Amino acid sequence: MTQLIHKGEGHRKRLKDRFLKNGLQGFHDYEVIELLLSLNTPRKDCKQSAKLLLKRFKTFQRVLEASHESLCEIKGVGPSSSLGIRLIKQVSDRYLESKIISKDVVQNPRDLMEYLNQTIGHKTKEVFAGIFLDAKNRVLTCQILFTGTLTTSSVYPREVIISALQHNAAAVIFAHNHPSGDVEPSKSDIRITRQLLFALKYVGIVLHEHMIIGNNGAYSFAAQGLISKFNTEFEQTNY
């Protein structure tokens, strides 16, 4: 019996051959998504579904961040394809986290920036993360501490201190995202950073950095001199 070949089979093979030869170099975002969909959709052209995903979620990164339910709302994207997309994102996150665990990210921050851009940089809601370090500034663990708009009522220094002590942290780096893409700190961001630095100081834990991550770049409290300023204020207050 002659095996039927669907009309997209040749196109799909060309995509796979391109990837095997050169990786994702030269791929459009919709082609990357199409390739992902094709892994769990063996007998169907996936190009249109890939384009519908980008139309709905606007960017490649937000397709990867989308919930299982919202992915399944797109025509041609079923539970298996949704699982594949979400699995790829989680595997990527874990890979990047493995690159920074036990590394000194204070002296070598590039891998940390890559990890933060991947894990929180494109989220549609604000999340506040803590990177806990040992006495040699090596990463012990990374943890999402709070979700939602940052205010003094949504970030609790007591919970931050408890998490730091539970991990035997000697130092901390904080990071949160701005879904708008504008990485300039708000007055609330500055106030919370100062409050957290003071709280951590009282239990002997150093705050090295607070970074704001957005799709237009990043803002470093340390590079802008704010961490040093708050440390000086603490010393003067407690002299």
UniProtKB/TrEMBL annotation:
Recorded hits in Pfam families, A to Z, give: RadC, UPF0758_N
For this chain, the family text in UniProt reads: Belongs to the UPF0758 family.
**Which segments cross the bilayer?**
none
Q: Which UniProt keywords apply?
A: Hydrolase, Metal-binding, Metalloprotease, Protease, Zinc
Q: Which GO terms describe its biological process?
A: proteolysis
Respond yes or no to whether keyword Transport is given for this record: no
Name the InterPro entries for this protein. MPN, RadC_JAB, RuvA_2-like, UPF0758, UPF0758_CS, UPF0758_N
Record's protein name? RadC2: DNA repair protein radC homolog
- Organism field: Desulfobacula toluolica (strain DSM 7467 / Tol2)
Q: Name one GO molecular function term.
A: metallopeptidase activity
Q: Which residues form the MPN domain?
A: 105-227
